[in-house]
Prior knowledge:
This protein is mainly α. The chain has helices at 14-38, 49-68, 71-91, 104-122, 127-147, 155-162, 164-201. It has 2 domains: 14-157, no CATH class; 163-202. The protein contains 7 helices and no strands. The longest helix has 38 residues, at 164-201.
Amino acid sequence: MNKPEKKPKMNLTKFQKTILAAGFISILAGILQIVISFGDFQFTFHYLRSLFIIIFGAIFLYLGLIVIQKSWTIFVGLLCILFGFLLFLIDSNILSFSLYQIWPFVVILSGLCLIPAGFYRYRRITTVFFVPSMVLIGMGFFFLLFSLDIIKISLREAAATWWPILFVLFGIGLIILFFYSQNTNNKTARQSNDFDEYEDIS
């Protein structure tokens, strides 16, 4: 399978950096104001933890796009922002769950953040990022069934009884990965042939 090429680093002007920073600030300020107006948020140190995480994530994401320009910085920045908003919704009583109950959402958010991180690195969706992303999202929803008591038995009891299903899911994932990579190779080969034919005609 051909290794996807990394995208070249961006050389942004001062004006572009300013626009990007202003965009981040505007989006965060608007979302926070909406949440505050609909929730019961109190400005104490305990409740401000979510704001610190959101601001840290926004700064990290900005530096990742402007200075570092690495996919892992995009992942960390986005995850901090989304996790901060999750805490914000819990602390403002918009979500009537504790973090202990909905911790699998962190796993789901991790999977979601892998997709834009991979797209930033290769400028397209690749199996290197997409497959782990789907696995994390699936695991998060699976764990959520137990943490919210939708499935009444404990996760430990379910794992002791149904652990062979992991082998089945792993096998299905490998088969999907095989067909996806084969399809990608076929597309690459067709594009290469079309280019060769175009050169021959020229």
